[in-house]
Amino acid sequence: MAAVAVVAVVAGCAVWAYTSGWAGTGNEPAPSPPASPGAGPALEPDGSASGWTRAAAPAGEASVDPVHASAGVINPSAGAAGVSAGVSAGPNHGPSGPGSASPGPSAPGPGGASKTAASKTAAAKGNPGGANLALAGVATASESEGDAWAPRHAIDGDPSTRWSSGFADRQWLRVDLKQLWQISEVALVWEAAYGVGYRVESSADGKKWTTLYETSAGKGGTVRVDVGGQVARHIRMNGTKRSGSYGYSLLEVEIR
Predict the structure, then answer these.
(1) pLDDT in tens, 184-216
(2) Any idea which of 102-111, 161-170, 190-199 has the lowest mean pLDDT?
(3) Which residue among 5, 88, 246, 247 is buried most deeply as judged by most CB within 10 Å?
(4) pLDDT band at 113 (very low <50, low <70, confident <90, very high)
(5) CA dist list (Å): 9 to 12, 21, 65, 140, 143
(6) CATH no. of 133-255
(7) Facing residues of 141 across strands?
(8) In the chain, where are the structural domains located?
(9) CB burial readout 135-154, b (16+ within 10 A) else e
């Protein structure tokens, strides 16, 4: 007798097929398949193997194990990668445990971020002599009170000149050092109109910023921030609250 195949559709999201290799010897009925997919292969009376196999999911759909589907959640818009938390994946296999689903793209290994940081550090120029790198930089700002208080006056090394911002809380001054440097210190020399709330930030590309220092209780004067060899090309003072009705006024920004 020919092999018997029984096909079942489970929860409308996966197709399972039970195949029996038992040919029989007479007119006796074929053996019934196990009640649950995933019960594993079995041996027929004649020694042949039988068992459930899962058919491939339709194109564009995630293949879900109906035995465990209730324990996991799949985001239809994310496809097979949208698996709920608590599901782990082994090498060359889909996620294991509750909520099994086909794996999505693999994430970078744990050493990926450190390799990127190491690459930036290697490309950055050192400043062992502690020179004021801002003197050779280019300063820009959100706004200035006028040309006499333009951003360039905050990095000219002249304490008699200054940058003065527009009269608003949200103002910034940025210095482009033109290349990556290993920076040890940033100093802000405030005039009488200082920042009460502000951040000192750094960036390698002018797009993604890292906060090096933050305060909501600034008192003016000279503020020196030890940044411990931070790799950056851009340094920014990002103001959030002024000390009075005027803007932010910086005599100098020093970067070493």
Answers:
(1) 999 999 999 999 999 999 999 999 999 999 999
(2) 102-111
(3) 247
(4) low
(5) 6, 21, 12, 65, 66
(6) 2.60.120.260
(7) 173
(8) 4-96, 133-255
(9) eebebebbbbbeeebbbebb
